């Protein structure tokens, strides 16, 4: 009985979740977590082959529906075409995980306008555009929804380890956009939250962590004394998408081994 009640608190059966950046790294684990909870998945990124392989894995392992959607999230026309084809096959999403992102490094005084603009487009403009595309039909139909923006500990503090002004600025912007959307869309029961991962080993940072000195520095800066594993993000996304989080909106949930605590 208690096990069944617990399962209901976290069940996403009948929900359709769109995850951007699902072709590698954390996006793959967000997809696995939501599939374990029973959600059907729309997996979006530019590389088709890894998306198709993940969709197949999710269908076979968890018995959910899953579609690979090839699109550059900075292109309105590509995203619209992908969502249109998905709507015909799986329905419109009522959960969005804005995960696609980029983290260029380099000293602030040398940051080029081009890198700045590209980072802004991917890390901040695209999440807003996607949130609008998912929220508009929900608002029109008075259906509840969840939006989960993947930010970073470096949306809340500066980074002394790597220089990344465009990254910290865009993630900070996405955090306050999360709060603003939470306020504006609360009357529609569209809950908007953010997850701030700490140092998690993925494609994005693996080159940097091949240097033992970099890795040791990050480990020393983290109370738990180690890097996070991508699968350690699953619980946070399931919680924020689930009935268990029905009174949680505008929050930034850090999954960071305690990095922000000292
Ligand atoms: N890893 C960490 O330690 C860490 C810490 C804090 C926050 N984060 C955040 O977590 C998110 C995922 O990072 P990750 O570490 O998993 O990085 P990753 O392995 O490099 O994955 C980035 C994902 O974004 C997709 N992507 C990039 N540009 C895109 C575009 N224009 N259109 C569509 N998809 C695009 C990539 O797929 P395609 O190349 O196939 O398009 C890929 O699936 C990012 O927002 C990042 O800032 C990561």
Q: Could you give a short description of this structure?
A:
Helices cover 46% and strands 15% of the residues. By secondary structure, it is of the alpha/beta class.
Percentage of residues in strands = 5-15%
Low-confidence stretches: none
The tally of domains stands at 1
Order of helices and strands: HEHEHEHEHEHEHHHE
Could you give me the name of the CATH homologous superfamily? NAD(P)-binding Rossmann-like Domain
Overall 3D shape: globular
How far apart lie the N and C ends? 41 Å
Supply the number of helical segments.
Answer: 9
Ligand inventory: NADP nicotinamide-adenine-dinucleotide phosphate
The level of helicity is 40-55%
Please outline the major beta sheet: 7 strands, parallel
Number of beta-strand segments? 7
Strand order of the largest sheet: 3-2-1-4-5-6-7
Structural class: alpha/beta
Rg estimate, integer Å: 18 Å
Rounded average pLDDT: 97
- Would you tell me which CATH topology applies? Rossmann fold
Which CATH architecture?
3-Layer(aba) Sandwich
Could you describe the 3D structure shown?
With 262 residues, the protein is of the alpha/beta class. The protein has one domain (13-255): NAD(P)-binding Rossmann-like Domain (Rossmann fold). The chain has helices spanning 2-9, 25-36, 48-62, 76-89, 113-141, 165-185, 206-209, 212-220, 234-241; strands spanning 16-20, 40-45, 66-70, 95-98, 145-150, 190-197, 252-255. A 7-stranded parallel beta sheet has the order 3-2-1-4-5-6-7, sandwiched between helices. The chain starts with a helix and ends in a 7-residue tail after the last strand. The mean pLDDT is 97.
